[in-house]
Specification:
With 136 residues, this protein is mainly α. The protein has a domain of 82 residues. Helices cover 81% and strands 0% of the residues. The protein contains three helices and no strands. Helix 2 runs antiparallel to helix 3. It is elongated, with a radius of gyration of 32 Å. The termini are far apart.
Length: 136
């Protein structure tokens, strides 16, 4: 019994080394976890900011589309009244179409950012979860 006790007492620091190694591994894993959580929070914040900015841009673009529609209506009335050439109508129509295209592009970017936010939050879906349309 005395030999076994002395073996545990005089292990040349092996237990301390194992404890220190285990503690270092634990601390490295904690640091890695913290980093992962911080990156996840940053990603969520980035996606929320992106959505907020895109929402503001969409509002401004909606005003631009409405203004272009009004300008096109005026150009059509002026042309119908014989005040101007059809070139003014074509120019107004081109601007209106460009503004609509930009609005659609912004909407597409909003959808993409929404999906990225859901993914950042750890959620998601697959095709089996989508609603079925058409014949049951």
């Amino acid at each position: 019994m005395g030999a076994q006790a002395s073996q545990y007492i005089f292990d040349a620091g092996q237990r301390r080394a194992v404890t220190a190694t285990t503690r270092n591994i634990y601390e490295a894993q904690v640091d890695s976890y913290r980093n992962t959580v911080l990156v996840a929070f940053q990603d969520v914040e980035d996606q929320l900011s992106k959505l907020r900015i895109l929402e503001q841009e969409s509002g401004i673009q909606a005003q631009a589309v409405a203004s272009a529609q009004h300008t096109l209506d005026l150009a059509n009335r002026r042309y119908s009244g014989g005040v101007t050439s059809y070139l003014e109508v074509l120019t107004a129509e081109q601007i209106f179409i460009q503004d609509q295209s930009t609005a659609i592009s912004l909407r597409s970017r909003q959808f993409s950012a929404s999906v990225s936010l859901i993914r950042s939050l750890g959620g998601g879906w697959d095709a089996t979860q989508l609603p079925k349309f058409g014949n049951p």
